[in-house]
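hi! just following up on the protien thing from before. the input was this:
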Amino acid sequence: MKEIKVKITFTEEVLGSSPANEDIYKDFIASKSPDAATIEEEVAAVGVEEVTEKSMTIFPKQADGTPFVYDYQIRGFFKEMAGICKKIPHTESSKITAHKKLIDNYIFVNPRQIPLDLHGLKMGICQRPLRADTAQGPRVALAMSETVPEGTTIEFTVVFTVDGEAGKKGKEAVDYETALKEWLDYGKLKGFGQWRNAGKGRFNYEIIG
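and the predicted 3d structure came back as:
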């Protein structure tokens, strides 16, 4: 087992991705997880306010009001980046076969709630139009998301319970620390959170332990 501690400093604002409406959020989580305790924990962390628009997305909050991201959001980010990097020849990621199964079963992130340190800066709101072509013609809706600013940091630990033989293709062993750095390097360009295609959530990172 190996642990690597990562610090991420966001160079662009990050958009929250949790629905602000409690019923919508609860129904969504219920459809994804059979664990009732997990459902209640995540709904409680959202802290829905009556004045919040149903269409708005926010960050869950700890008891003292600190916004955070869940461990599974980081692992989901790893899955997306691994899926991209494995298509790039001569990378460590290209040696991995079933990357989603590998991350689900052998790569973990601690703590469960990863605080967003704003360093005294304030949260904001991002509004943007969503355009779609429907059977009734083009439609435009306004989306709103809570944001944390450029300069916000997070720290988390990646736990590897796997050696270089697991998930390999052919006879090539995988250096998972190098693969992790590939995911983070590509993620610096791709971004984290909502509206990544517009450059939101881009970051720099450091291996700090």
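The first strand starts at residue 2 and ends at 10.
Confidence is low (pLDDT under 50) at residues 46-54.
cheers
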